[in-house]
Amino acid sequence: MKHNNYFxxxxxxxxxxxxxxxxxxSFCMTLIASLLTPNEQTIFSLPFTLSNYTQLxxxxxxxxxxxxxxxxxxxxxICLLLGYPFAYFLTKTNEKYREFLLIxxxxxxxxxxLIRTYAIIAIIKTKGVLNTLLxxxxxIHHPLQLLFTNTAVIIGLVYNLLPFMILPLYxxxxxxxxxxxxxxxxxxxxxxxxxxxxxxxxxxPGIISGAILVILPSMTLFYIPDLLGGAKSxxxxxxxxxxxxxxxxxxxxxxxxxLLTLLMGLLLIVYWHSMKKTNTKEFS
Amino acid sequence: xxxxxxxxxxxxxxxxYAFLYLPILILIALSFNNARYSTxxxxxxxxxxxxxxxxxxxxxxxxxxxxLGVTAGCxxxxxxxxxxxxxxxxKFQGKSLLQGLIxxxxxxxxxxxxxxxxxxxxxxxxxxxFFSLLLAHITFCLPFVIVTIFGRMTHxxxxxxxxxxxxxxxxxxxxFKVTIPMLLPAIIAGLLLSFTxxxxxVMISYFVSGPSFEILPLKIFAMAKLGIxxxxxxxxxxxxxxxxxxxxSAQLFLRKNKHA
Lengths: 284, 260
Prior knowledge:
CATH superfamily of chain B: MetI-like
Helix content of chain B: over 70%
Shape of chain A: globular
Strand content of chain A: under 5%
Strand content of chain B: under 5%
Mean pLDDT of chain A: 85
Mean pLDDT of chain B: 87
CATH topology of chain A: MetI-like fold
Order of helices and strands of chain B: HHHHHHHHHHH
Distance between the termini of chain A: 34 Å
CATH architecture of chain A: Orthogonal Bundle
Radius of gyration of chain B: 22 Å
Number of domains of chain A: 1
Structural class of chain B: mainly alpha
Number of helices of chain B: 11
Number of strands of chain B: 0
Strand order of the largest sheet of chain A: 1-2
CATH superfamily of chain A: MetI-like
Number of strands of chain A: 2
Oligomer: heterodimer
Largest interface: A-B, 87 and 87 residues
CATH topology of chain B: MetI-like fold
Largest sheet of chain B: none
Low-confidence stretches of chain B: none
Distance between the termini of chain B: 33 Å
Structural class of chain A: mainly alpha
Order of helices and strands of chain A: HEEHHHHHHHHHHHH
């Protein structure tokens, strides 16, 4: 029994120590910094103030926040519209190939989204692959101006984040009890009714976890608008980057970051609520 | 399911996979294109790769990224394995808190973690460079390692540990003779995945790196801001191939005798 204790104490202490210092402590510091007064010499100092938060209601910040939210919601909707049928069809494929198809989907999940964003530039720039192709096919006569627009940012975000929507959706759809659908069919339900009354409600946790994994990065991946959107396109992520590294206003940046954390908290509450409702457990 | 619907489904899957992979394939093709500015094909050439190999600065940052990825990967795998074993085998106070924290760490936007770490490092005076990057990379790799290894453990029959104990094995022996061998594929997968995460990270490194220790992803970011360059196409191709190989092998390890 004694050995057991040593091992247990050692593992638990090491993981808790690490997470306490680098996650909890550092996060508390962000919280405290967001409540301090910005200062030229020491970055921030006493007294405590709420002004960093009240300043977030400035028209410029509200505009950035709304625009960022709009782009993120648009990106999430597109990912859902593409990702849901994709995940659904994937569950219907032959099991022999499915494993391989899944790996093909997981690869973009792990590999550099910076490189994938860079690849988009070569395609959509004025003299890029897409314009060359469309002009040589005679579909358009003047090159499309896509790069450095909001459309380019949306393309980049969807391209990078689509797998993050598909994987949780697939994990959810795969687990659905087919006997429920058989029973509904036997009772005369149409395909539409089955989808609306069984498949869709059961897949809510998958939809929500996919949405969380898409919406938060699409507000914060600042290098996507940096590379595809030009200078005008400012997301919440670009704002935080600017506040920290250019304006050196760490308190203001911390307050913006807390706002983002609050949004994450709200989304997680929605997620846990939906899990309780459908009574499924997943760790994804 | 009707045949037509099947066909429709396969078309949809096919075109989405094309959407996911065509840009990368085009990038790879362009890296062999014998032209500096054009995106049409002008014949095959290795010249951008040889140009790349002459760039000493790039070699140094590549070496930095490699060292960082391997070190961060090893330490986070070690720590993550211990944590996953503790979560699987022991009952302890604050267990659901720990699980919740790991879950939140996966979901949290990278930028939030990045600035929190920047704040911590500046207050406890860790100079921005190799060390700050290492601590940050271990922190963001940890939850992914834990989830990867924990996921594999759910296939293990807990009675094995009881049996080993009944036969008189100490916790030390159980760890090295039972737990580690059974988890080895997942541990290797965790190591490969955390290396990939570290090797590719931009968001967090952007905040916690310093001029003394340049790494590849940040260098690529700076170069990409200036637009398309054939040397950069070649560099991205190489990195993409390295990470595809590590991710793919990680997946193979994870799927190996899953049901054993």
